[in-house]
Amino acid sequence: MQLVYMYMDSPVGTLKLVAHDHALVAVMWDNEDHKRVRLAALLENTQHLMLLKAKQQLQQYFAGQRQQFDLPLDFQGTDFQQQVWQALLTIPYGETRSYKDIALQVGNEKAVRAVGAANGKNPISIIAPCHRVIGSGGALVGFAGGLDKKQILLNLEQSKSA
After folding, report:
1. What is the fold, at CATH topology level, of the domain defined by 79-161?
2. Domain residue extents for the chain
3. 3 labelled catalytic
């Protein structure tokens, strides 16, 4: 299945959106480590319907007009990673969860570090809200886009959900 991509500007920098005909596959950062999310060959297509829909919904999110995304998602990863990424999708807008909370949710309270590793490999940033996962003490830890961008996303959501 051919993967296509386009870039979009956002308040957290340039994002690279990746999709195929049936779903969004990735939202990647401008400073992305190419080893974090491995993808097959990509073809640029700025008119692809799935990419345009993702861009529109992300623009609405950044404008404070969207709290939930309505896009088909195609996560590529291990069964455990998939469980963690599905758990991310259940974190309400404007709220946070700890890595331990996610470990409990996926049924393995001892898997806190594995949850952190899976969270770090989340290919669909922002939409699968890995930025809403924080350390047990409330500290901002680990984020592929950088902690400054994590803080921007959390501030955006907390200001719009208040």
Report:
1. Arc Repressor Mutant, subunit A (1.10.10)
2. 3-62, 79-161
3. no
